[in-house]
Structures are given as structure tokens and as C-alpha cells.
Task: structure prediction
Amino acid sequence: EMKQTASFNDYLISPISRIEILISLILSSIFNSVILGFMNIFLLNFFFNFIDINYLLVLFYLILTSLIFSSIGSIVGFLSYRWDMQQGFSNFFIIPVCYLSGTFFSLNSVNLNWQFILKYNPFYYLVNNFRKSFNNDYIIGSNNEILLIFFSLLFITIAIFIFKKGYNVIL
Result:
């Protein structure tokens, strides 16, 4: 959206590098998501009883989720010419992947022949592990976290490469 409204040019004339711009955008989205996530937990605590919540795991998955989605958003925003290209990516990639991540259904309700497809979706592990972090019996350190950290580093590396190259900066 910043490219369509020409406000990204204000970032480019500032005396900081493109990587610093990317890091500031990602850190601001992480900060916003952590603050909003814990505000939601605080407000929902009036209606539901969160007894066994593991706040460190919730913080870990909030940071990891916002890191992945802000990196993907930076990549798409930087490569898109117009808003309809951004919406096309959102409609045909992000939304189907999120719907197939187990947000609205349990993996146990899916046919065994189709479960293997859902298990290769990294967003499934984000949703599942974030859900498990509300139960204090979940232990971090499995292969799922390694996979999620790998995907977050992959998306950050792609975003850094694209920002450093300066592809389609000014139209």
C-alpha cells in the first residue's frame, strides 16, 4: 500500500539503508502483534479462565507468527505493482493456506488420505503449537519449531534479498 500511495518514497529518501527499513517494518509488526495478543489474552481472561497458559510459549509463537507474516507481507508489498496483485496473492495463497492449517477444524476430523498434505503446511504447526501453548503441558524443542524457525529465516532472507536488490522500488 505504501507504493500505491507513494509514501514509500519518504522511506527511501531517509538516510537509512533498505535493510534498516525492512527491519524497522518487521520489528514494528512484531511489537504490534505482541501488544495486541496480550491485550486480547487480558480481556478474554474476564470471560474465560486461562489457568494453564504458558506465557513464554505464547510470546514465542506470537513473535514467530508475526515474523513470518510480516516477512511475507514485505515480500509481496515490495514485488507488487498494484493493489490487485497484493490481493491476488492474499486471496490465492495466504487465505487457502490459512484455511488448511487447522484453524477451524481438527486434523483428526480429516480423512487419513488427506492428512499428509496438511502436515506439510508450516502454518498448521504455527496454529497447532500456538493452541498447545495455552496448555502448560507442551514442551518446546521438537522438529516442528526447527521447521518454523527455518521458514521464518527463509522468508526473512528472501525479503532482505529483495529489499537489498531494490526490485520495483519506484514506478
Remarks:
- The radius of gyration is 18 Å.
- The CA atoms of residues 107 and 116 lie 10 Å apart.
- The chain has a mean pLDDT of 82.
